[in-house]
Amino acid sequence: MADAPGWQGLLDDGEQILWQGRPSSRIDWLDGDWRSALMGLVMVAFALFWMFQAAKSGTGMWVFGMLFLVIGLRTALSENVLPAYIRSRSWYTLTNRRAIVATDMPVRGRRLASFPITAATPVVLEPGDPGSIFFGPLALSERKGEGFLLIPEADKVMRIIRKIQSGEETKDAP
Fold it and tell me: Residue 151 in contact with residue 23, Cβ under 8 Å?
């Protein structure tokens, strides 16, 4: 991220990058909301049926099915595909002072979320391969909040964060 065009000048004086990475962009079919996906697929099937039958009648009413088609597709894909797409457009950076989550989305553009890492910052590790690290007050809630999602070396990054929080030297970061 620091070397990518348009992201220069984001670090404060004395701030050093300790780790950078990208999340896994795989689609997580097991962790999504299957009820929403199923409801969306039913809506898509109904919309396609409506549009086909209305087109056969020649009345032009098939256009109304487009609304249900779009809503159904969004409902079906938003819990599994959309998060994977957002992760594919995300970059993570850990410095000796903060965690940075950068995204570059079409239409929305570039966004930067920054989370100070202090001894008082709530940080939660969700182990796994890949694992996730969540920051801030929402990290302690069920909602989880923001963080480094689905990174392959989450345990190593968590150790670096703990060193930052304890005030230890962090020059030996991977």
Answer: yes
What percent of the chain stands above pLDDT 70? 86
pTM of the model: 0.75
Angle made by CA atoms 29, 105, 35, in degrees to the nearest 5: 25
Please state, in angstroms and rounded to a whole number, the distance separating the CA atoms of residues 60 and 79: 33
Angle between helices 34-57 and 64-77 (to 10 degrees): 160
**CA-to-CA distance for 86 and 104, rounded, in angstroms?**
9
How far apart CA 42 and CA 52 sit, in angstroms, is 15
Can you tell me the distance from the alpha carbon of 152 to that of 85, in angstroms, rounded to the nearest whole number? Answer: 17
Q: Which residue has the tokens 């404060």?
A: 12
Assigned token pair, 45: 């099937």
Residue tagged 């966004």 (tokens):
111
pLDDT tens digits along 115-140 = 999 999 999 999 988 999 998 878 77
